[in-house]
């Protein structure tokens, strides 16, 4: 199972630097750690449009969303390549619900 976060432009790859890190980024980072610990077979990747622009082209759904809506549609989250949320990061509950659905539970 693979979750990918297509991030908007940020100061660094995690968005956790600087004197006042974004609370959303802190929560997302904690959620990623939790998911990696709970689901042993999960792969989680984050891509920043300014550093890995080709990743945004490789997923046709992501590419089409950005082409049609511009960068303001970011962040985009995918599960096994399928877009599951746009405009904001999913909550931990939303991520777990999608994971359980994919696992057939």
TrEMBL record:
<protein>
    <submittedName>
        <fullName>Arsenical resistance operon transcriptional repressor ArsD</fullName>
    </submittedName>
</protein>
<dbReference type="Pfam" id="PF06953">
    <property type="entry name" value="ArsD"/>
</dbReference>
<dbReference type="GO" id="GO:0046685">
    <property type="term" value="P:response to arsenic-containing substance"/>
</dbReference>
<dbReference type="GO" id="GO:0003677">
    <property type="term" value="F:DNA binding"/>
</dbReference>
<dbReference type="InterPro" id="IPR010712">
    <property type="entry name" value="Arsenical-R_ArsD"/>
</dbReference>
<dbReference type="GO" id="GO:0045892">
    <property type="term" value="P:negative regulation of DNA-templated transcription"/>
</dbReference>
């Amino acid at each position: 199972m693979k979750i990918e976060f297509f991030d908007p432009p940020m100061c660094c790859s995690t968005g956790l630097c600087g004197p006042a890190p974004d609370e959303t980024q802190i929560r997302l980072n904690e959620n990623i750690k939790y998911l990696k610990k709970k689901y042993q077979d999960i792969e989680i990747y984050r891509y920043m449009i300014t550093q890995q622009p080709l990743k945004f082209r490789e997923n046709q759904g992501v590419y089409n969303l950005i082409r049609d809506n511009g960068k303001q549609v970011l962040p985009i989250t995918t599960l096994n390549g399928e877009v599951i949320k746009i405009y904001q990061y999913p909550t931990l509950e939303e991520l777990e619900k999608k994971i359980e659905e994919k696992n057939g539970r």
